[in-house]
Design brief:
Elements: E1 4-13, E2 18-25, E3 31-38, E4 54-61, E5 64-72, E6 77-81, E7 83-86, H1 93-105, E8 108-120, E9 129-138, E10 151-156, H2 158-167, H3 172-184
Helix pairs in contact: 2-3
Length: about 190
């Protein structure tokens, strides 16, 4: 017997996240309740993951990888991360890439190399999907972040990234991008 969706219900409406409880019939025929969060208003299970909400940017400049060393409130620590952000209403993915890169680093996009189709950002507890973009960037670092962000942006060589991978905490997407950059180039 396959898992079968039985009920889909919003249980909390936060400022940025909405909490839903989903009831399934498991393989044994017993009810299983599962909680998820979404950035979007969902009306039914078919809405899950239906619309991308943001982008993560794998950016390079002259053979170096851009990494952000940023404080993340959700884990109460500073981690290495990719430049990333949420799509604004009416904004194209290309516009979002340029805006987020500028806001978080002061840099400009020289060339968007590839934008991958949306993928799930945290499949265990959220339906949030984001694009992964690869870009060559240029310019000088400037801080345009909000008062609620603490971000240090820097370019790293392959050897520097190899060292960071052994000693520092990363977001999972940044860690994967950093690994492939360090050992295979991008």
């Amino acid at each position: 017997m396959a898992l079968e969706l039985r009920n889909f219900e919003k249980v909390k409406d936060g400022k940025y996240l909405k909490n839903y409880e989903i009831t399934y019939l498991n393989k044994s025929g017993k009810e299983k309740k599962y909680e998820i969060v979404s950035r979007r208003e969902l009306t039914c299970a078919e809405d899950l993951g239906a619309a991308p909400s943001g982008v993560s940017i794998v950016a390079t400049c002259k053979g170096k990888l851009l990494l952000l060393h940023e404080f993340r409130m959700g884990v109460n620590r500073t981690v290495y991360n990719l430049c990333a952000g949420m799509l604004e209403d009416g904004e194209s993915i290309e516009e979002c890439i340029s805006r987020e890169l500028y806001e978080e680093t002061g840099l400009q996009v020289r060339e968007i190399i590839k934008i991958l189709p949306p993928s799930f950002a945290a499949v265990a507890f959220s339906d949030t999907t984001t694009y992964i973009a690869f870009a060559e960037v240029e310019g000088d670092f400037e801080d345009h972040t909000s008062e609620n962000e603490q971000i240090e942006a820097k370019f790293y060589t392959q050897e520097e990234v190899k060292e960071l991978l052994e000693t520092e905490m990363f977001s999972s997407r940044a860690q994967m991008a950093a690994y492939f950059f360090a050992y295979y180039g991008l």
